[in-house]
């Protein structure tokens, strides 16, 4: 399969690397020093699932140099999706499918607005990975996994084909009965953990062990479940228990990417995660006090990171 990976960071670098290693024609859309390092030295991935090194690597910052592909895996930050959607148009042909792997639940609609709903799938991934240095990805936790599906949950031929391509590359993948619900399950986890981690500057292990922060994390999860129900999302009845069990299964030192960005003073996914929870809650009349606290505690540092605030 001919695949473009739009965003070659921890997520795109890992999954794109696995697809390329399996013999697929993979092109990475990247930029800056990471792109330069990939061009000169290839892509190195250190993983708990086995290390590998790709060289040479097809990598560019210009999608028009790649041309039309069978599938685009979108792995930029959530706040970068609208710009990415405009930039990826040279990759899109009549049969191209676009699979978003962002945190949050708004990427499919943002992509559909630019590219047309017929091209866009629902999707999410699970992995703890990051750029250790230009050209070098580290995967440090969680079994890498992708869920994908048509937004109306049809088991279409194109979804089955992409699923098979992922599985044949050694990637754990599923086509759930309800992809929107599956995306929300991830959203419930990641927004709560990201926000709590960013506010406390603590690892997931510390958050879950201290009684006060564990209680706050639980309340954050419960708020999101109430918002999802009000929006008509069909979450499974044991979502709170399963989410907390997943939190308890993670390596003690784990942190979320939004937390790492905020701690480093970089622009983050705050608006797409905790900000989105607050917005969704207001739209359906559900109060979200924990997520509102998180959002309002972090928004000034977010504004500073984006050059919108002095001091």
Which features would summarize this protein structure in a list?
alpha/beta, 12 helices, Rossmann fold
Notes on the structure:
There is one protein chain. With 311 residues, the protein is of the alpha/beta class. It has 2 domains: 2-177, Rossmann fold (3-Layer(aba) Sandwich); 181-305, Orthogonal Bundle (N-(1-d-carboxylethyl)-l-norvaline Dehydrogenase, domain 2), CATH 1.10.1040.10. It is built from 12 helices and 10 strands. The protein has helices spanning 10-21, 32-41, 81-87, 107-115, 157-168, 179-200, 204-209, 211-231, 239-249, 257-263, 274-284, 289-305, and strands at residues 2-6, 25-29, 43-47, 52-54, 58-60, 71-74, 97-100, 122-133, 136-149, 172-174. The strands form 2 sheets. It has a 5-stranded parallel beta sheet, with helices on both faces. The longest helix has 22 residues, at 179-200. The protein is globular. It starts with a strand and ends in a 6-residue tail after the last helix. The model has no long low-confidence stretch (mean pLDDT 97).
In a few lines, what is going on in this structure?
The protein is of the alpha/beta class. It has helices spanning 10-21, 32-41, 81-87, 107-115, 157-168, 179-200, 204-209, 211-231, 239-249, 257-263, 274-284, 289-305; strands spanning 2-6, 25-29, 43-47, 52-54, 58-60, 71-74, 97-100, 122-133, 136-149, 172-174.
């Amino acid at each position: 399969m001919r695949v473009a990976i739009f965003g070659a960071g921890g997520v795109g670098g890992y999954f794109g690397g696995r697809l390329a290693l399996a013999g697929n024609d993979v092109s990475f859309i990247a930029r800056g020093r990471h792109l330069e390092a990939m061009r000169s030295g290839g892509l190195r991935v250190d993983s708990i699932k086995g290390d590998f090194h790709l060289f040479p690597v097809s990598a560019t910052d210009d999608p028009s140099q790649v041309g039309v592909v069978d599938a685009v895996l979108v792995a930029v930050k959530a706040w970068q999706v609208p710009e990415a959607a405009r930039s990826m148009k040279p990759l899109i042909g009549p049969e191209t499918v676009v699979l978003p792997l962002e945190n949050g639940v708004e990427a499919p609609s943002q992509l559909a607005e630019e590219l047309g709903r017929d091209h866009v799938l629902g999707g999410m991934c699970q992995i703890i990975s990051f750029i250790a240095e230009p050209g070098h990805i580290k995967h440090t936790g969680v079994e890498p996994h992708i869920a994908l599906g048509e937004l109306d949950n049809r088991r279409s031929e194109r979804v089955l084909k992409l699923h098979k391509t992922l599985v044949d590359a050694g990637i754990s993948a599923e086509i759930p009965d309800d992809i929107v619900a599956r995306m929300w399950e991830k959203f419930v986890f990641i927004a709560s953990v990201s926000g709590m981690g960013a506010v406390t500057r603590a690892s997931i292990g510390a958050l879950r062990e201290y009684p006060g922060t564990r209680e706050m994390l639980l309340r954050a999860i419960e708020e999101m479940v109430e918002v999802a129900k009000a929006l008509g999302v069909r979450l499974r009845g044991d979502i709170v228990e399963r989410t907390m069990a997943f939190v308890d299964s993670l390596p003690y030192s784990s942190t979320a990417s939004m937390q790492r960005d905020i701690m480093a003073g970089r622009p983050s996914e705050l608006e797409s995660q905790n900000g989105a929870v607050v917005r969704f809650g207001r739209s359906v009349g559900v109060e979200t006090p924990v997520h509102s606290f998180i959002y309002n505690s972090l928004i000034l540092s977010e504004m500073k990171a984006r050059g919108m605030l002095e001091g």
